[in-house]
Design goal:
The structure is a single chain. It is built from 6 helices and 10 strands. It is an alpha/beta fold and about 230 residues long. Helix 1 packs parallel to helix 2. The longest helix is centred in the N-terminal third of the chain and has 17 residues. The chain is globular.
Length: about 230
Amino acid sequence: MKIAMAQINPTIADIAGNREMIISCIGRAESLGADLVVFPEMATLGYPPMDLLENRKLIDDNLASIEEIARRTGSTAVICGYVDTDPDNPPMLFNAAAFMHEGKVMSRHFKTLLPTYDVFDELRYFSRARSVSPVEFRGHRIGVTICEDIWNDIDFYTAGHEAGSLERFDYRRRYEVDRCGVCSHQRDRRRYCLRPRHSNTIRTCDQVSESVGFIRCDLLGCHLRPIAR
């Protein structure tokens, strides 16, 4: 599978500007023959929106934006971060990812582990995912995780192994990807969870904003080939 990593730098609360950036990257990935293009956590809103998440119009605009992005998808599938509502627990929200293909949202995935340490206060705004499920795409079972879920959520991996082999695609906000301040036990656990014998891993350390890089996946792991802007 040929995967484009859209390492963009969204602007907080600029729904229209972020949407146009996302749509532009989708077109570029499609023209370059990508099977899938992956965007950061909360790409529609920018991270971290913090108390702006209490602005209902902003949330509604972000939901309309993800639907418009979905309508603009074609043969290249898209995973994009956004914010969804939790109808069972208003006014709480979900930190979410949409899997989109051929003009529609195929599935929605919610973050399980919500950090409350350091600068993070996600439990203030978000509900935890109540279940996880893979996506079937071109002969692959794809598990979508958001940020910390990729290295700390043991239940996700237990469920994945019981259900069969999963290719796991994790995306996170630009700040998380670029920084190196990860505790050693977190790094070790992330490495364990992403070991190639269990999945096609995805990692990128691209320092250039608004760029697209390719990852080509096979059963032995992945290789990132940056693409000139």
